[in-house]
Amino acid sequence: MSNEHTNSLIHESSPYLLQHAHNPVDWVPWSEIAFDEAKKQNKPLLISIGYSSCHWCHVMERESFEDKDIADMMNEWFICVKVDREERPDVDQLYMEAVQAMGINGGWPLNVFVLPDGSPFYGGTYFRPDQWAKVLKGLHDGFNQQYDEIRKSADSLKNALSVSLPEKLNLAPIEEKIPPLSSFEDGLNKLSDLFDNDSGGIKGAPKFPMPVIWRSIVAKNLVKEDPKQSESTLITLKSMIAGGIYDHIGGGFSRYSVDGEWFAPHFEKMAYDNGQLLSLYSEAQQLYPGENFKPVIDETLQWITEILLSEEGGFYTATDADTEGVEGKFFTWEYDELKSILDEEELQFAIDKLGVTENGNWEEGRNILYMNKEAVLDIHSSNETFNNIRKKLYAARVQRIPPGLDNKILLNQNCLINSGLVKAYLVYKDDKYYKLALKNLHYIRENLAWSDKLIHSVGKDTEAFADSYALFILLLLDHYNITQEEHYLKEAAQYMRLAFKKFYDTKETFFSFSADDHNSPVAKQFEIFDQVIPSSNSLFAECLYKLGRYFDQEDWLETAYTMVGKVEKMIKSEFRYMSNWAKVSLYMNLPQVDVVVTGEEAQSVIEKLQTPFNPFVNYMASDKTESSLPHFEGRLSDSETKIYICSDRVCKAPTSNTEEAIVQLSTLFNN
């Protein structure tokens, strides 16, 4: 594409917006100025939303937004606004909900036409050039010739969107203080009917990893294993690694596969997926001690550190699917290429074990590497031939033009990767995981965590959204688990209080997605459903429950109980979209087990008690004589080490014997 045209996006920092800076479309970024201009010129706005690694966003840009004739229509008839959905997830959520309310399936690119006051009246996703031209002409004519009808339709939709999600869902409190575990079990049993026990995941295509679902199932089976659920989960974990959705050469998982076998991905890799998958595979290691997921965690970490890690310690957002305009070109192989790189034995291995064929197993004669799920862990763990293949193909691949990098650094996605590193450290005790987690946490504190608010994106002053607050609070609790340094808990409590002030709605008893000063043009938004990332409200319920236990703060516990209680019926009926809520309800139904260690050897003793790490236990250790935590009251000592094992606020007699404490702890859980 030539640089004959330049629009105002040239002054933006988002890679997605910069991709459109030389379109002949007069794009402007999301701002009040755009709406003021629409009012001044009496034009509707086109709000076009996407992200840098979105394949179909690129396709629509090439086909329509780079077409001069189509661009002239857009410029003459509309104020054209480009939005990076990762920079403004609130705008994306708002207009995605609007399009779905019109009866249209959502997705990206998301193209929504709105009146100058922000009220949507038409929308869709990808349009072919001929379709797009007809839509533009039809909406232009309609706006000028049938404005009253469009206004009426927009007002009706706006009224529908102004009803809050909790109100639409008729969420009401339950009689019980703690939501019953039976809802978790019934919901999971219902979802189990949709498990694909051949290829893993949920039946059908496309297939998304959805770590939030599988982490919930792993957690439940760590408490009480169900053989069928456990088997389905293991099939899923192995199948995802075996498929082409996993990059067997460079590490890391793509966003989804277009088929039902995890074979052919859309090749974009996202920070939020891979961070959560670090957590999932680390937690699954405890459920399946006979399997070895560590090589896949290390390979994924290799991709994160080589591609996503900035020099200062922040993690970038994503890499693209396309290279030189061709999807998957960087990741796939022609047979002759492989023949020229590998020796005879290695080439035969690629044919026998990696699915390679002379004519290619995918498009345009190219091969996607994949494996048999029963052999994949052994091959990645210890197969010398495969290791040699990996090294040779990696060396050849780095000579290619790499996929585009979205170099935004976002708080929520950094928290997800950091938490995955901490989970991996707690399971494997590999210092490299925590060393990187600490480096990144320092970066977050320096660049995104202010004393009075959190920031969404490095280089911007946009306040973080609710999910980022919750994820950062949970991350601080993760770091406390390792270090037992109380400042992490105090900091978490500080941001929890800030979140109450900024997001909590006393009428709905849920947290809105945006702080009040985000000025959403249509409706206040509440995230309830867990999607690829857990909903902000399920995350806050988890924060409140965990912090409430640490600080013995009843009002926070009661708020968590109320939130989970209100969605209890939906956990039962819609487990697929309520799985993090389900995990929080699981925590609430287990004994509240606290391990408190005091004395000069407290830190070394707590590390022994955390092996293996039990995610359902609150571990607290201090070798000091002062603490703000109520659990240490009357127990602190800087000399003799004592261990207190407590369940539901009833403690066994303290012991100085670590082995005895481990036995006491093991008796408090079913297995």
TrEMBL record:
Residues 6-161 form the Spermatogenesis-associated protein 20-like TRX domain. SUPFAM superfamilies: Six-hairpin glycosidases, Thioredoxin-like. It comes from the Bacteria. Pfam families: Thioredox_DsbH (PF03190). GO terms for biological process: carbohydrate metabolic process. This is Thioredoxin domain-containing protein. It comes from Mangrovivirga cuniculi.
